[in-house]
Amino acid sequence: MRKIIITAAAVGLIGNAQAGLKGDSVMSPNGVVSSATIQQNMGAVQTPAISSSNANEVQWGTCPSGFTYQGSSAYPLQIRSITTYYMNGQPTGTSASGWTDLDSSCTKTEEQSIACPSGYTGNQLQRRTVATKDGRGYDYSAWNTYQNSCVYIPPVTCRFDLWRYMLREDVNQNSVRYSFFTNGSKNASYAGASPTWNGYRAGKLNRTDYFQDGGDSGNTIGYTNYYEICGPF
């Protein structure tokens, strides 16, 4: 009679193959029960944590002399986006977008003073803004008047006729009196310095008449000056 001997190791290999490494007892082909196998614990499989963040990178230019950008001599020229990648919190690499022009403008303020229109006195103060165009010239805003001191001056003419003139009387060469005549009638008299009256003032001397004063001082010579008067008639 022949005997078949199966080792425990061989039986274990067969049993493990059939049981799928579950550690159960298995039956060998000849009916011999093998011993229990030892389960292999591989542990939980961990997926790595992957993340990213974005930030902008800006290239700066320098404003021309006399110009500023929001109070600074530098202005933002181009911008791009930088993406940084992380694995388990540790940076692993970056990527960048293309550069985009920002078309920012540096500016300055110009001022000027211009004369008032004809018939006015004073002046006008104006401002405008000048902006750069990234090396392609300048943009100019319209002039804006921020102060206007123009005052209308009525036209002044001077005339001498029987109806409108000024008389200056010098009596004894030390007493001066002025009288204004309009339409042949005396309207006002003044003593002292040359006056104005109702907008009229002394103009060109027309003629002078001399006379003698036969008062107590003897033959003192006095004279009367006839002037044009000037004003907005």
Fold and architecture overview:
There is one protein chain. The protein is mainly beta. The protein contains 1 helix and 16 strands. Strands 11, 12, 13, 14, 15 and 16 form a 6-stranded antiparallel beta sheet that branches. The longest helix has 12 residues. The N terminus is likely disordered.
Helix content: under 10%
In whole angstroms, the N-to-C terminal distance is 162 Å
Please count the helical segments: 1
Strand residues, percent: over 45%
Total domains, how many? 4
Oligomer: single chain
Order of helices and strands: HEEEEEEEEEEEEEEEE
Mean pLDDT: 78
Features:
1 helix, 4-stranded antiparallel sheet, 51% strand, 6-stranded antiparallel sheet, disordered N terminus, 233 residues, 4 domains, mainly beta
Give the topology.
Blueprint: H1 8-19, E1 50-62, E2 74-87, E3 90-96, E4 100-101, E5 107-115, E6 120-121, E7 123-132, E8 138-140, E9 144-148, E10 151-152, E11 157-159, E12 164-171, E13 175-182, E14 185-191, E15 201-213, E16 220-231
Antiparallel strand pairs: 1-2, 2-3, 2-4, 5-7, 6-10, 7-8, 7-9, 11-16, 12-13, 12-16, 13-14, 15-16
Short structural summary:
By secondary structure, this protein is mainly beta. The chain has four domains: 37 residues, no CATH class; 52 residues, no CATH class; 46 residues; 75 residues, no CATH class.
